[in-house]
Design brief:
Number of strands: 18
CATH superfamily of the largest domain: FAD/NAD(P)-binding domain
CATH topology of the largest domain: FAD/NAD(P)-binding domain
Number of domains: 2
Low-confidence stretches: 1-17, 374-399
Order of helices and strands: HHEHEHEHEHEHEEHEEEEEEEEHEEEH
Largest sheet: 8 strands, mixed
Distance between the termini: 46 Å
Oligomer: single chain
Helix content: 25-40%
Shape: elongated
CATH class of the largest domain: Alpha Beta
Bound molecules: flavin-adenine dinucleotide
């Protein structure tokens, strides 16, 4: 693609500088999506990834795109973001699949949340009341109707909520597609390259250092997931992101039949079928720092709860178990927008919804960088964690 010819006028200013216009630190779903959208607007972009692209939380994620079922009390800002992202997804995927020639495994499967006992039914009813009060697409179904939708469900349960619009994607296939799309727009992805330091001119961040070289850019986008509170940044510029461990299992039916027709969930587990016959079972939520060990307790809990929901699980092949680190923030909202120092833009803290939020975060970062002169850049994310237009996002009260 001829970058100069397709470049919008505002973005042109970005390229008339030395080095890159934008360096993205981190090649997970967020960094790759941001790089793609930025390059489409004509910016010269490089992604710096210390391992493999998508090798962080992105590789482990179940890939649910489920704003309705994942709804929690007291998180209206997050709901606004996840609904907006879910609306963007079909077009994002279509464009990405055309640009890369790769399939992402995106499918609008619908999600069925089942109450396995009386307590879970009472809890699910309360969530369903909230869903209805917000006019979200979700229907309460008695057990017979649930079983019509999903014949393999456990024989005894107390009804469920069906959210027909919920979708899923294979995050590893999404990573491959994003890399293909980045190749097509000429974005350099440096793998096996760790950012170890910042390069400063006065107070301004003008690039990064890796063990082998110094890379310069007008803007550095911090998309390092759970590792975003990086010690290569000055202390006051480190965003309040912490790792939240999650373990998942991968199963497969041995007869090659689809393991389930829909995303299935109970209070303690969710099951996400893939088009190739796999079933992802997730996920634990553990405050264990940077520990990524798969534990016997974690696997036991996931298998037990998956079996309670879908007894066929017992006959499935166990393909593997992995653990990843969600980038958590004190109020569960992402941090997208200007960092605390000039030259730094945050695209991090997407916690449990980074796969879902990626198209929205990428649009926001790309728009804000293309639209404003560097010194005036501000996020256009509908709500960043601050919900305000300030240099250091104000996270409010931690939960
Ligand atoms: C078990 C589990 C299940 C999940 N399920 C879902 C789901 O169903 N739906 C959903 O929407 N979300 C889900 N998530 C959340 C989602 O995975 C994350 O929010 C998302 O992957 C975050 O993407 P990211 O690009 O910010 O981080 P990551 O994917 O972690 O990428 C960050 C990258 O930065 C790199 N990096 C870090 N420091 C440096 C450095 N100094 N130099 C160079 N590179 C660096 C890392 O190597 C890594 O590749 C799940 C997460 C987990 C753990």
């Amino acid at each position: 693609m001829d970058l100069i010819r397709v470049m919008p006028a505002e973005a042109k200013a970005l390229t008339e500088k030395r080095g890159f216009d934008v360096l993205v630190v981190g090649g997970g779903v967020i960094g790759l999506s941001c790089a793609w959208r930025l390059a489409q607007r004509g910016a010269r972009v490089a992604v710096v990834e210390r391992d493999e692209p998508g090798g962080g939380a992105t590789r482990v994620a179940a890939g649910m795109l489920a704003p309705v079922g994942e709804l929690s009390f007291g998180e209206p800002e997050l709901l606004e973001l996840t609904l907006a992202a879910a609306r963007l997804y079909p077009e994002f995927v279509e464009e990405l699949e055309v640009a890369s020639g790769e399939s992402t495994g995106y499918e609008q499967l619908g999600a069925l949340h089942v109450a396995l006992d009386r307590d879970e039914a009472a809890q699910l009813r309360r969530v369903h009341d909230l869903q209805r009060s917000l006019e979200l697409e979700a229907e309460w179904l008695p057990p017979r109707r649930c079983r019509e939708l999903e014949p393999g469900l456990t024989p005894s349960f107390h009804g469920g909520v069906f959210a027909a619009g919920e979708a899923a994607i294979d995050p590893r296939a999404l990573t491959v597609a994003l890399l293909g799309a980045l190749r097509a727009v000429g974005v350099e992805v440096r793998t096996g390259t760790e950012v170890t330091d910042g390069v400063f001119e006065g107070e301004r961040l003008v690039g990064v250092r890796t063990p082998d070289e110094e890379l310069r850019a007008e803007t550095v986008v911090l998309a390092s997931g759970a590792w975003s509170a990086a010690d290569w940044l000055p202390e006051h510029a480190r965003p309040p992101v912490r790792p939240v461990k999650g373990q998942v299992l991968e199963l497969r039916r041995r007869d090659g039949e689809p393991p389930a027709r829909h995303i299935l969930a109970s209070e303690r587990v969710y099951l996400v079928p893939r088009g190739d016959g796999r079933l992802v079972v997730g996920a634990t939520v553990e405050e264990m720092g940077f520990d990524t060990a798969v534990t016997a307790g974690g696997v036991h809990e996931l298998l037990r709860e998956a079996y309670r929901l879908l007894p066929d699980v017992a006959e499935m092949e166990l393909l593997g178990a992995t653990a990843g680190l969600r980038p958590g923030t004190p109020n569960n909202l992402p941090l997208v927008g200007p960092g605390a120092i000039d030259g730094l833009v945050l695209a991090t803290g997407h916690f449990r919804n980074g796969i879902l939020l990626a198209p929205l975060a990428a649009e926001a970062v790309a728009e804000s960088l293309a639209a404003a002169p560097n010194s005036e850049r501000r996020s256009s994310f509908p709500r960043n964690a601050a919900g305000k237009d300030e240099r250091q996002p104000d996270l409010g009260v931690a939960r």
